[in-house]
Amino acid sequence: MSNENQKSSDKYSKLAGNTLIFAISSFSSKLLTLIVQPFLTYAMAEISDLGLAKILSQYANLLIPFVSMGMSNAIIRFGLDKGNSEKQVFTNGLLTILAGFGLLVIFWPVVQFLPDMAQYGMLIYLYILMSCLRTLCTQFVRSRQWNKLVAIDGILCTFATLMFYVLYLVGFQLGANGYLLAIISGDLVSVLFLCLTGKLWNYVELKGLNKNLWQQMLRFSLPMIPAQISFWVINASDLFFVREMCDGIDGHSGDAWSGLLSTGYFLPTILTTLGLIFYDAWQLSAVTEEEGRAQFFTKIFRTYSSVLFCCAAGIIWLCRPVMHIMKSNYYTAWHFVPFLALASTCSCFNQFLNSVYVVNKKSTHSLWTMLAGAVSNCIMNYFFIKWWGPVGATYASFLGLGVVFTLRAIDAHNMIGMSIHPARVLLNFAVLAGEALVLLAEVPLYGLWTGLITLGIILYNFAGVWAMARILLPKLLGRRGKALVKTIDSLLAPREKQA
């Protein structure tokens, strides 16, 4: 039993260690998000300029799955399989992306008829290519488990992108063009850094291509295209619905409303960043740890969800005062934050549960669940915006992602026997929705009530949060961390015995 306990402890410790490494990388990205969004509200003279910039980047995000053919998921899944050649995996991914981009170039006569594409097409194409290449390089490096290199790259890319924002938006005042150029330039810096430090050219092997492996990778990745498109629909269609349906409401143009909505993502993005930090480490453990998988997934999800529920409650509670750091005419974007925080929590859960499909190589399930969410999201967007105005788009996002979460939770239980403890999850979401409605209704003393609800959420989820903290603290603080864990455990022990 001691050996089994040691193995169990090792896999949780390994997951915690990888999470810390990726946190170093992603913390800088989170910091960039916190700095850049307020910076953009000051650097772009009009709200509509920011709205246009976000719309253009979403055009690129729509086309990226077609160019990459979903290969980013296959790179890490097949790269982690010990029986596969790293050179063949990387070469297959690179050739797939280049072929996809070639097709995009050929279809320019059609693509140019998309709104705004004729004017900004060149930049959008560069955005797509650099994004695909950066994803290829970072996913391959992760599959090699060069985690420290990933962390350094994240910091470098973040700093470079921030500097390019300053250069293009403040120095040259290029507006939407500058926004796209900054992201393109940051991705280029990342690709060059990873290629040079990882010597990735050594993994390009054009002779003796393994066509069978390529076909396996494509069978796995191609269903990811409509799945990623569906994910895009849920997350980005809000901007387009608001742009087209809210023109003239309260004196704002459609682009202005989409700019406000994108600003509303400022705080919820913290949740998705936390999710990405964890998922980068989790996908390695999910694939490589095979013993006791059902219990492992169930226990980690409980801890992970506890942390996210507490963070979401805090974001809803503090969103109004924090949004004052934006330029004054952007402040009203706080109305979008509460239900976007709930939507981001669902999005993180969906990403976690997607690892079940990755482990079992059931990518078609990822497609059908996301497609169900996308269709329901579009229908709800239309009606909710009609009934409640621009803020209705946030309700649609939350419920659409909730549909995906429900379907994936059922799949996870059927495939590996994992349980999400639905009663606990539903109670948390119900309380968070109540907190959001109290804030949006601006009831008397809403700050007090939302603060008390946040405290209740934290107390209810404390055990799950502490389960993660007691693993991370010794790694962060060494002996002091271990002493702190022992002290808190001793304080909690009498309560646990009473319970």
Automatic annotation (TrEMBL):
Subcellular location(s): the record lists:
Cell membrane
Taking the first listed entry, what is the main subcellular location of this protein, grouped into a coarse class? membrane
Mark the transmembrane ranges.
20-40, 60-80, 92-111, 117-137, 149-170, 176-196, 217-236, 256-279, 300-318, 330-353, 365-385, 391-410, 422-441, 447-473
Q: Where does the signal sequence lie? A: none
* Domain of life, source organism: Bacteria
Which keywords describe this protein according to UniProt? Cell membrane, Membrane, Transmembrane, Transmembrane helix
Is Zinc set as a keyword in this record? no
Among its keywords, does the record have Membrane?
yes
Please tell me one Gene Ontology term that the record gives under cellular component: plasma membrane
Name this protein carries in UniProt: Polysaccharide biosynthesis protein
Membrane topology summary:
Multi-pass membrane protein
The record's InterPro entries line, in alphabetical order, gives: Poly_Biosynth_Transport (IPR050833)
